[in-house]
Design brief:
mainly alpha; 8 helices; 85% helix
Amino acid sequence: MNTMIRLVLENFTLSFLVLGLLVSGISLWKQKRPLSASIIIEALFAYFLLFSIGCSFFYNFMMHSFFGETAARYIGWEQSPFQFEVGTASLGYAVVGFLAFRGSFGMRAAAVVGPSMFLLGAAGGHIYQMITAHNFAPGNAGVIFYTDLLIPLIGFVLLGLQWRYQKAAKASANDQ
């Protein structure tokens, strides 16, 4: 059990992504049938924003701000004052993710674009560390590296799908 808890906490970005998918599934299961594409996308996107952006970045804030020594060791870094700066940036992204959960399209775009730039930059930093410092610590080259690429991809796909289906719904409403 301790190993399972450790894996969930160490791979928090994947854990929150899976949790968001599970909660989306439960939400959709409770919906009236038939389910339209826009209802499915709304559930997937809302819970993605809540868990993969809001909760995940809040967890990152907590780890870097209050458990910086542990976070640094897991990433393969030395402890640094920069840890707190990463933590507070993560807190900002978490707040935007929480606001976007039930927010407007513009708020949701902000909740995808800002954190995505941070994550893609972090992925670049991980690659650089793997090449130059041979840092293959789990917090640098493990699940976190792959989710630094996957979370932005999923976010932009869901944002594009929501835009597409909102536009189609507005056009359909105007035709009636």
